[in-house]
Structure formats: structure tokens, C-alpha cells
Amino acid sequence: MIGVGTPDWESSKVPPLLRVSAALSWRFVAVVGALYIVSQAVGYMASVMIPVGIALLLAALLSPAVTQLTRVGVPRGLATGFVLVGGLAVVGGVLTFVITEFSNGLPELQNQVTASLSTIRDWLKDGPLHLSELQLQQYVDQLLETVKANQGEITSGALTTAATVGELLTGLVLALFTLIFFLHDGDGIWRFITRIVPRDVRARADLAGRRGFASLVSYVRATAVVAVVDAVGVGIGLWIVGVPLVVPLAALVFLGAFIPIVGAVITGVVAVLIALVANGPVAAAVVLAILIGVMQLESHVLQPLLLGRAVKLHPLAVVLAISTGLVVAGIAGALLSVPLLAVLNSGIRSLLSDADKHVDPRRVDVDEPQASAPKDLGDEHRVDELGSDDDDKKKESGRGRR
């Protein structure tokens, strides 16, 4: 017969190290499995999740402007319309300017590419390889034959690109539509979401979410400043060297800088390659030196000063987050991974902070950078989990003390 003490006897036969290792192992497996399921679900819903994530980033960028307009008496709906129209006008004007500059500089770039190809052809003939005209023609013919042999794959790739463009336009419409509601009633949407949280911890979850969004606002602001500095620095360097398409390349660096650490480097390599083709190896070396200088300024001055204070993330965590996002959702995942990590970091810090136990979520201004830092506001700002009834009780107790 199995006695009451049998489980204790059996557990005593298991070494403590093995028991602890087993307990940690199954919990680790459970966490990894949950993360895998979440990543698969996000990947499956990428066409919806990515536009919503981009809309959230844009809301973090534009919501302070909407808030400032409402504080001076402008209705929130009208303020949202003003900010959206103004933002679209700025983006449209910048895109029009970039496309015009690219179109104007393209003929010059084509001439320089043709001259560079002629230089390469002469080097192949007169250089150490000493290729003849017949050999060069054979290589060209082989290239044409390869293109013809893979015409089906090229055509299917073009069709895939057309489908991708269609999905991109659909995603842009969804992102714009979502952005309108985030700006107009983001606080109401958040309060509705927090209703699924149990009432006894709802206030802490509400506060953690607001801290996370405040951290996202700080991240977007700091990243925009870093992107402007990168684009201006690289653009001035390209202009001094005389590389064509200065404005489009600077705009490309600006967009790439929103992917921390690696984005500006990748887009800067494009500028180096264009300088190599258009102006030769010396100009490319100068542009590379300028790019390295700008990256050093970003890594050692701007990132610690701005992003370090905004999100408080270790550079290794940023690199791993970008790599994971790139694997899960491509470029969009790399773009959204660091903001997501910043939001989670700030929210978890708020949940673990003793100073946030007595902070009223309604008193947190998510449009101010300092809102992302937990601080104790005192018992006078204690969270009212029961709403107006607790307010009345506090007022009555206050009258009694007086």
C-alpha cells in the first residue's frame, strides 16, 4: 500500500540539482514554445500586424502635436485632421523633391556608368588579364544566354514584385486608416484593451502600458534626430566629393537610420558603390571615410546621449532584436523590433518598480519623455481602482480630519 510519505521518499531519492534543473527545463521549454507560437502567429498575420505597428510608430511621432493643439482649444478631431494633412503634405513634398532630383541626376549617372564600364573594358584588355575582344564578346554572349534561359524566373519575379506592390499599397491604406483612429481616440482604445485585465491589477497594467508608449514616443523622437544628423552628414560629404544623386542618397540614409546600428550602414554602402561607379575608387574611399565618421558620431555620441536615455537598452540587445525581427518579418521586422523591445522594457520595469505602485495612470503624460521613467508621486496620487466612489470616500475622510 502506498503511504502518505511515499512522495517525500521518492523525491528524496532525486538529487536537488536534478529537481531544480528539471523544473527550470520544462519552464524554459514552455516559454520557448509560447514565443515560437507567437512568432508564427505574427508571421502569419504580418500583412495586418506590420501596418498596425507602423501606424503605432507614426502615432508616437504625431500624437504630441495633436495633444498640443488640443491644449490650446482645438477639438481633437480637427487637430487630428490638421496633423494628418500637414504630415502627408510634408511627406508628399519630400518624396516629390527626392523623385525629381533622382530623375534629374539619372542621365548624368548613366553617362558616368557608361564611362566606367568603358574603363573596366579597357582595363580587362590592357591590364594584367589581357583579354581579347573575342573573349569579352563571349562573356557578354554568355550573360545574354543566361538571361534568356532564366526568363521564366525573371517574369515570375516581376509578377511577384507587382503583387508585392499591391500588398504594399493595401498596407499603406490600412496603416493610414489605423493611424487616424490612434491619433483621434488612442486613449479610449487603450482603456478598452485594459478591460480584459483583472480588476485588481488593471491599474498597474494600465500604467505599464502608458510608460511603454511614453518610451516609444521618446524612441521615435531620438531616432528622428539621429536620422537627420546621419542624412545631413552623409549628404554634405557626398556633395563635397561630387557624387551624383546627393539628395536621394541622403534621403535613403535618413530612412535607413530608423533601423538602429545597421540601417544607416547598409544605405551608406549604396552611396559608396555609386561613388565607386560614378567617380572612381578615390572618391569611393573618401565617401567610405565620411560614412565611418558619421557612424562613429552616431555610435559614441548620439546613440548613448539620445537613444540611451530614451529606451535604456544595451547595444547587444538592440542587435539581437534587429536580427530576430529580420528573421521573423524581414525589413519590417527589423524596423519594428527595437521599438517593441523598448516598449516591453519600459513596461516591465514599471511593473517591477515599487515607485509605480501609488501612481495614478491618468496622471501620466505619455507625450512627455520623462513619463517613461517611473517615479513615486506620493500617496496623494494613489490609484483609484474603484473610480468615483473612492474619490467620494477620500473627500469625506478629508473633511473629517479638518
Q: Which structural category fits the helices and strands?
A: mainly alpha
Strand-residue proportion: under 5%
Tell me the overall shape: globular
Average pLDDT, rounded to a whole number, is 75
Number of strands: 0
**Domain module count:** 2
Looking at how many chains there are and whether they match, the oligomeric state comes to: single chain
Number of helices: 12
> What is the radius of gyration?
29 Å
Helix content: over 70%
Low-confidence stretches: 1-5, 375-402
Separation, N- and C-terminal Cα atoms: 70 Å
**Run of helices and strands:** HHHHHHHHHHHH
**Biggest sheet record:** none
In short:
This protein is mostly helical. It contains 12 helices and no strands. It folds into 2 domains: 48-196, no CATH class; 200-373.
Describe the structure.
The protein is an all-alpha fold. It folds into two domains: 48-196, no CATH class; 200-373. The chain is 82% helix and 0% strand. The chain is built from twelve helices and no strands. Helix 3 packs across helix 6 (151-194), helix 3 packs across helix 7 (199-241) and helix 3 (46-71) packs across helix 11. Mean pLDDT is 75; it is low at 1-5 and 375-402. Its main location: membrane. It is a multi-pass membrane protein. Residues 376-402 have a biased composition (Basic and acidic residues).
Provide keyphrases for this structure.
mainly alpha, globular, transmembrane, cell membrane, AI-2E family transporter
Break the fold down into its secondary structure elements and pairings:
Layout: H1 6-12, H2 16-44, H3 46-71, H4 76-126, H5 133-149, H6 151-194, H7 199-241, H8 246-256, H9 263-279, H10 281-311, H11 315-352, H12 388-401
Biased composition (Basic and acidic residues): 376-402
GO biological process, one term: transmembrane transport
Protein name: AI-2E family transporter
